[in-house]
TrEMBL record, chains A, B, C, D, E, F:
<protein>
    <recommendedName>
        <fullName>Germin-like protein</fullName>
    </recommendedName>
</protein>
<dbReference type="Pfam" id="PF00190">
    <property type="entry name" value="Cupin_1"/>
</dbReference>
<feature type="binding site">
    <location>
        <position position="82"/>
    </location>
    <ligand>
        <name>oxalate</name>
    </ligand>
</feature>
<feature type="binding site">
    <location>
        <position position="97"/>
    </location>
    <ligand>
        <name>oxalate</name>
    </ligand>
</feature>
<keyword id="KW-0964">Secreted</keyword>
<feature type="binding site">
    <location>
        <position position="92"/>
    </location>
    <ligand>
        <name>oxalate</name>
    </ligand>
</feature>
<keyword id="KW-1015">Disulfide bond</keyword>
<feature type="binding site">
    <location>
        <position position="102"/>
    </location>
    <ligand>
        <name>oxalate</name>
    </ligand>
</feature>
<keyword id="KW-0479">Metal-binding</keyword>
<dbReference type="GO" id="GO:0048046">
    <property type="term" value="C:apoplast"/>
</dbReference>
<feature type="binding site">
    <location>
        <position position="97"/>
    </location>
    <ligand>
        <name>Mn(2+)</name>
    </ligand>
</feature>
<dbReference type="InterPro" id="IPR019780">
    <property type="entry name" value="Germin_Mn-BS"/>
</dbReference>
<keyword id="KW-0464">Manganese</keyword>
<feature type="binding site">
    <location>
        <position position="102"/>
    </location>
    <ligand>
        <name>Mn(2+)</name>
    </ligand>
</feature>
<keyword id="KW-0052">Apoplast</keyword>
<dbReference type="InterPro" id="IPR001929">
    <property type="entry name" value="Germin"/>
</dbReference>
<dbReference type="InterPro" id="IPR014710">
    <property type="entry name" value="RmlC-like_jellyroll"/>
</dbReference>
Length: 208, 208, 208, 208, 208, 208
């Protein structure tokens, strides 16, 4: 009796606190390998040991995800992680996580970590340059970004209170959706001419 | 024994399902008036009967909030509402609610209602012109907007599954925070020159 | 890897915030059509534009449901809606929603909206005649009803903080269950003779 | 720093898992005595050892409550209990708990335990005579009742997954609210004449 | 359309409040029998009427579980129960329930019921001998045990606010895991020599 | 109107997503300092930059807590963190967090990270030596420990999905509670003589 999904209603699977789901479990499907022995990659992960290349995109940053898609062991446990690497001057551009609060640790270098409050706060801007070892918290659903203000590479590891926090990169969402948001809408929203909108749009035709 | 706050842990106040808190309740403070009789404004509200002036700001839209600050009766009940009025061509600019999913009803006129999925969906753009009587749902934390595509005024009433959903207006948050986000950060994020950023910033010096 | 059900543990499906489930998704089964394009009936619904005939049953009211069964787009999002239409003198008889708090908007006409508190409140009776544009909130699990006190038709649109709030119509549940509640039980509960119980039971043999 | 109320957001108070709140705690107020030593009535209760007199009201049953008002130790823990005693022929009349699922144990005698499903189930009626030692579950918000079908006294102890489940006695709520529901509303809802409604109302003028 | 798993996101299945899942439901699988009629073992259970033999193991106690595996009717309802029987001198050894708060009723005899607070409380030890009819609450995740201090058998029935609370027996987990925890780790943790650890380990080679 | 506590019912304070509570806020009391400006220690913390002395106690490890007591910024946000430092051969002895799942990152050195499943899994023992950069997840309420198997110091930073996860150190709770658990109870539970119990107890008279 596969009861993983219903146990999820209790905020945590019974099975995942004991023996993980077998290969034939309909919840995981045939692609799921059976965690076979102590020491395997089920409750542990090496995925964050190597970051990606921050220069592979215009942002100068790279996100290595450890959400439920990449780390099945967090399934039903309402947690996940990310590692982010930054080139000098690189940014993890303004974004929000629609389904999680985030806590983070700067693990290397220095990072400007900025959080902007909601309308109720007068869009208050919280900002600090954090060094390795310092931590930050991003309340659920608020816009935030990091910026590598130093001349060295920098990295951080963050954790979420959701197995699938999601990410909405604000510039990409506004200017690079599929299909695109009509230009008049964005011109009205940004209070500028259509040419300004189209200029920015042209920067996101390549996506992320 | 004021147990409203602890009862909130059960997702719903004991007291608010019976007799509301008295004036001296420390949770509500002295400013709270005692709901006195059946028929008063406690579980009922007339606040949505009159919308605000949509022409009082550059967006051409006006939000009348019925969250817990404006409608104490929803306290601990994990619901709230808003009425939004639109001038012709007016927009409720791209925004997110950090703490709630929203369902809405167009009550007058026609509105373009658009929702943009997260990165995982390829920033998929959902879009439809809705007439009075049609409904829409905005998954928690996703960016969305409405635009009055007609030559008549339009209105909608929306509901949230939080007593305090919050709102993050995207352009205002990026370009009108207090204090402002540094221009180089936004130039990097938007992939444009500082002048473009400063131009847009200049449009939000007056706030919302 | 179909993870919709487990993602539900995070209070919202990952997939439904991006690309919806395909036709072969085991969660939805083969009867589920693939939401094909922006503008379709996935995150939008036209179902509330037309109400049902309030004279088709003895109550003089008709409920058009937009819960997860009728609007798959709300799946995992903890919201749903209903439209209710009333003939003059019609009533949405005393009922409770076992799994949701409700907020409502009178959209046409005038409605007496009544809510009765729990035993703890001394069964306090909240009551008000609401006009179009006015709103109300029904705390989770409390008995309530609406009654069209005018000579015109009336309508309301309500929202729930559950995708499947359920409904327990009190008279129908007491007097028209399947099989019926034994008459002696109801006679004892209502403190009347069996004939009175049987009289009321006879009115509900046709069901809703 | 009294953080009990905020810790409630984590589904359980920090303080209550260690040293309980002091007498001056604003959450509990001055009426709260300090749990002083192991063995006191904080995490333990003797309240259910003695039931009340089931003949003191027309129902022939008596409820001894152990919710957060009567057992402060369950505060923030999302659990509570009740003991109910039944005279022969006594009933715990049809009622719902607006904020909890209930599990119960018959501790003495025999009880008819009945549960009626929601409209979606066709108001399906689940029914069984349970002997001492047998158990039952009442899904959240559904109407249910117990009836002592034997010639001996009977008792049960039930538990809830809320510290304050609340109770809505259906006949009392319909016919004995304060102030009363207008007779024409109930006549319409029950599909009977006003005299029948007024007859039943007259039985509840004395309340519970 | 099998929506049980997703409805779980609303804290309670729609289906289980009405007609239960059929035999072919993919969530329950073919082993699941169809609850056929009112009065069956779906919302009711006789499993707690007979306890197990407390002398069948070294603890002198026996647990009869009524969690979702043994009582499918509690599925999605966030409740479950246990009956525990004790021989004279028997103990339900120190254990924790990782996913639930527990409330309990002593149904026969006398039991020492002990609860130890977390580090924050200075590991405060709550302790009381309870007689039949007395109740206790165990905050989620705290270590606790019962001990039959009398010369008669004793029993209790407990309820949880999870359909699958889980159990971690502390001595068994430390000294009888599979494979075993390395002795040097336990010696360091317990601040004793390896021989002491190995002595205790030898007592748990037979398991529970 | 201080509504922080009630907003907590919505899984996140309104106020904390905007302007933090003032010094006179009854929820925080007079000891709470007003977060004064962007860049302060409200949403940021330097507390994890310096670990404690792992040789100051018999375990050879030191925990630096960043829960809500030490980092008020996480209040109502359902997250918190810890830094733990290990001497060579040091251990974070077997413990459980009663109210949270944990994810962790080894930041320095090598650590044996071990997790023991519940009874349902046969007390399955998950074990791996993790190097700096590797991560692990501890399902809510399960017993686990870390052990520094190298000759160098080691450190880790962990995150919780609760602002106040709590900690139950198993040996300390069993053998060093206040007042102590009676020796016969522990002798019965561990299946050894009283002398063995008293020997271990003697090691914990100094506490943690």
């Amino acid at each position: 009796m596969p009861i993983d999904s219903v146990a999820a209603a209790d905020f945590g699977s019974c099975r995942y606190r004991g023996l993980p789901a077998a290969a034939t479990d309909p919840i995981y499907g045939s692609a799921s390998k059976l965690p076979s022995s102590a020491g395997d990659e089920f409750l542990f992960s090496s995925r964050a040991t190597m970051g990606g290349d921050p220069m592979s995109n215009p942002n100068g940053s790279n996100v290595t995800e450890l959400d439920v898609t990449h780390w099945p062991g967090v399934n039903t446990l309402a947690v996940s992680m990310n590692r982010v690497d930054f080139a000098p001057g690189g940014t993890n551009p303004p974004h929000i996580h629609p389904r999680a609060t985030e806590v983070g640790l700067v693990t290397r270098g220095e990072l400007l970590v900025d959080i902007i409050g909601s309308l109720e706060s007068g869009n208050r801007y919280y900002s600090k340059v954090l060094k390795a070892g310092e931590t930050f918290v991003i309340p659920r659903g608020l816009m935030h970004f990091q910026f590598n203000v130093s001349k060295e590479e920098a990295s951080m590891v963050v954790s979420f209170n959701s197995q699938n926090p999601g990410i909405v990169f604000v510039p990409l969402t506004m200017f690079g959706s599929s299909p695109p948001i009509p230009t008049p809408v964005l011109a009205k929203a940004l209070r500028v001419d259509a040419q300004v909108v189209d200029l920015i749009k042209s920067k996101f035709t390549g996506g992320y």
